[in-house]
Amino acid sequence: MKIYVTRQIPQAGIEPLGEHEVEIYEGDTPIGHQELIEKVRGADAVIPLLTDELDADVLGYAKKLKVVANYAVGYDNIDIEEATERGIVVTNTPDVLTQATAELAWALLFASARRIGEGERLVRQGKFKGWSPTLLLGQGIRGKTLGVVGAGRIGTRFALISRGFEMKVFYYDEERNEELERELGAKKVDISYLLHACDYVSIHLPLTRFTRHLIDAHQIFRMKPTAVLVNTSRGAIIDEKALAAALRGGKLAAAGLDVYENEPEVAPELLKCDNAVLAPHIGSATHEARSRMAELCANAVLDVFAGRMPSNIVNAQVWADRRQ
Ligand code: DGY
Q1: Are residues 47 and 73 in the same domain?
Q2: Are residues 193 and 62 in the same domain?
Q3: In the chain, N or C: fewer CB atoms in 10 Å?
Q4: Is residue 273 located within the same domain as residue 294?
Q5: Residue 300 confidence (pLDDT)
Q6: Whose CA is nearest to atom 2 of ligand 1?
Q7: Does residue 261 share a domain with residue 154?
Q8: What is the Cα–Cα distance from 287 to 289, expressed in whole angstroms?
Q9: Tens-digit pLDDT profile for residues 13-46
């Protein structure tokens, strides 16, 4: 079988594929659209990154493609309907990056609340003139109200980490999260109330047509001027221009962002916000998580080749259809 991997990933994801023909894209920026089409055309399996758009156009060239094992937990880069229609299994990398991403969300929360980005720039620019009673005052965290937008795996882990800070926790999700209610006394509320009531808000939703720009100017307007907004999920969930306007206009204290609507571009308005801590999409970037993500991708490919349903399939319909 022919397997195409669109970037060098940890060996844990390559070694298990040894008995097959594996080709790896050698560049360190995303593969071009045309080259991706060529590779998809000849492959039995593709392991793409979240930066590779496998839309209906690209999938239309798949002649013998059986599985797309996305090297990410989010799969908004893949046209799932089209893949399902074509009988192509799609898998992702859940669980193994939950802790890493939840930890990064906390890192951004701390950095934004305590103005670490501004402080770092000040020190590096030689502008630190000594301790001052008023230098870079930020927001305290203990006992404050935490809002978790999306209480799936990562949102839940993120919320549980708040235990040591004795926070009041609200969450927004379609489903009730009994673990959060039991462990933290968290309350399920609607998004508008959450934004209005919370001191810290962290977003953990997948990007879908329902969540795109969910946090728009109207919603940001509900937030406290002292609030901090964190996003480690997908950039397009927030209207970046509206966020930048709020940050610059004193309507929001700070934001910690790991993701952007048009990566790798960052809205110029956001770049101008000193009170935004900007990370380069590194939520899952720990050695442990990236290695286990690679392993999951390889296992998914091998499962499909062997006629087993991968546990991390995202379009189980394909499997059901096969059995009919
Ligand atoms: C994912 O897996 O979707 C993350 O965004 C990668 O860091």
Answers
A1: yes
A2: no
A3: C
A4: no
A5: 98
A6: 72
A7: yes
A8: 6
A9: 999 999 999 999 999 999 999 999 999 999 999 9
